[in-house]
Amino acid sequence: MPHIPLFSSFWSQIKSVTTKFKSKSSNHQTLSALRSCKCTEDLKKIHAQLIITGQIKDTLTATKMVESYAVSARNIDYAFWVFVGIDSPDSYSWTTMIRGFLEAKNPEKALEFYGLMRQSGVESNKFTFLFVLKAYGLRPSYQGGRFVHGKLVKVGFCSDVFIRNALIHMYLKSGSIGDAHLLFDETPNTSVVTWNTMIVGCFGCGDTERARRLFDEMHERNIGSWNAIVRGYSMFGHVDIARSLFDLMPERDLVSWGSMISAYVQNGRAAEALELFKEMMLAGVSPDSIIITSILSACAQMGALEMGKWIHAYLKKNKLRNDIFLDTALVDMYAKCGCIDTAFEVFNSMPQKNLCSWNAMLSGLAIHGHGFAALELFQKMESAGVGPNDITFVAVLSACSHIGSVKEGWKKFNQMDNEFNITPKVEHYGCMVDILCRQGLISEAKELIRTMPMEPNVVIWGALLNACKVHGYTDIGEDVVGSIQKLVSEDGGCLVLLSNIFAAKNQWSEVEKMRKMMKEMGMEKKIPGYSSIELDNVIHEFFAEDRLHAKWNEISAVIERLNTHLEVEGYEVNSLLVLYSLED
Question: If you ran DSSP here, which 8-state letter would residue 541 be given?
Fold first, then answer.
């Protein structure tokens, strides 16, 4: 049961209001006052009055008090206290408590209360079943949901459209798409809401084909139908399909724009997210905090600092309320764009910080080489009582790599399991391999890879091979070569490194093998790497050997002048670090 608050402060309030309420107020006035109260402190004063006047003994009045505490003030502890004082709670009383637990995001306790209600012999009403079905939707249980369905059939509530929608939603959340579809097919005059529930549920169960078939069969659609199909395809990474449907929408709301922008961001297509955001602004649609958070993530991905600054200024100008998610997105954007000081300003000004906030700041420091500052911030995080997670340690180990401390790296790596019960993942082993490789400890890195509890990925092998090339370590071993060759389908970059290492050893037959494998993979046909730069809120992208940019001639001239200047200064290219191309 919930924690029951202490009585001392409450009784002091009762005494303070005793003189204020000289006469009994009517039930109507009391209920009217309850409807206007939204905070616990105000409700406690009315509660005190009800105790003094004896009105709290009335079941309806007491239940209204429960409802105000649980729903309006979101204080389930006080609601429970009032509830246990009701001599004979009725269906309304029990249902109010069940609803209260749902408002408190505690569906388990809501279902437990439903069980107690049944044991007490109080009959459930339609609203009771609606809240119980919602609870089973949040904590799926096929058997529990089936039991409630049976009760609904028995009492004759299944014909109610809201009950039917709730049942369909419950079955879909339980993964029973067949039961949901059976109910749907048996429903006469299905509403748009029911169709939308089925579409969302089918996507939730992974059945994209059925979801699209339902959408195409709809005789009438509302904006919720379009949002459901766009969001559903986005969820599965079918961004282009989602965009084609988005473009067909007869009207759009904030959810529509937000879903499409989020789809681009989550699938690594930040430039398109920024373009769509600009289109939204030109359409006169003002973004909410959710959309702005997505756009800040896009700015962080692209390194679009000027756009990020514009968003920050927009927030201040329009006095949009910053929440912890928005503040964290700002920290992440500034940190990833290299504005560490500004990121720290936003971070330090946050009234509240969660683990994501700390991780954003730590990661920003780590990726920009501020290793000592990152380790210092990690100490502050521990002092603040915030427990780290696996993402935290990726940043911390990266920081150790940047400061070149093998000792500190091993210390933090061992801390994960020993102190925080966090099992290291392949990313953490990758960080440790990188730490060792940067210090030229190739043998130690190979031994760590050999003893890993999981298969090393291409990132780990890439770190090892790069270190071998940098430090002139050519004794790679047949076992390493064999392991890398097994992973060529994931990333051919390791083959390029291997080829160059063999070339450094004059093992030209091995070089030929590597190049043959690369050609068979079609590596020369793959999309080349690219870099980007932001200028006047426009992102310019440059692909390798790309001459399509409108100002290519001017850019090429500047590069030539830089090369000439480097030659004059005596700079010589270290050819050992240059990867041979396939055509060499």
Answer: E
Would you say 266 and 234 are in contact if contact means Cβ atoms under 8 Å apart? yes
DSSP class per residue in 523-536: GGGSPPPEEEEEET
At residue 194, φ and ψ (nearest 5 deg) are -65, -45
Q: Is the pLDDT of residue 14 over 50?
A: no
At residue 45, the pLDDT reads 84
pLDDT digits 0-9 by tens, 228-253 = 999 999 999 999 999 999 999 999 99
- The two structure tokens encoding residue 464: 């090892």
Residue pair 294/273 in contact by the 8 Å Cβ criterion: yes
Rounded (10°) angle between helices 406-420 and 390-403: 160
Alpha helices per DSSP H over 285-389? 289-302, 305-317, 324-336, 340-349, 355-367, 371-383
Euclidean distance between CA atoms 97 and 100, whole angstroms: 5
Query: C-alpha distances in angstroms, 430 versus 215, 446, 463?
Result: 45, 11, 8
Are 442 and 468 a contacting pair, CB within 8 Å?
A: yes
Cα–Cα separations (whole angstroms), residue 567 to 564, 572, 573, 574, 577: 5, 7, 10, 13, 18
Checking 444-450 for CB contacts under 8 A at 24+ apart, the result is: 446/477, 446/480
Q: How confident is the model at residue 581 (pLDDT cuts 50, 70, 90)?
A: very low
How far apart are the C-alpha atoms of 18 and 583, rounded to whole Å?
93
Model confidence pLDDT, tens digit, residues 198-219: 999 999 999 999 999 999 999 9
Query: What pTM was estimated for this model as a whole?
Result: 0.74
Predicted pLDDT of residue 486: 64
∠ Cα 282 288 291 (to 5°): 80
Q: Is the pLDDT of residue 68 over 80?
A: yes
* Cα 472 to Cα 446: distance, rounded to the nearest angstrom: 15
Residues 121 and 326: their CA atoms lie apart, in Å, by 48
Inform me whether the pLDDT recorded for 23 exceeds 50.
no
Q: Is there a contact between 48 and 37 (Cβ–Cβ < 8 Å)?
A: no
Q: How many CA atoms lie within 13 A of 219 on its CB side?
A: 3
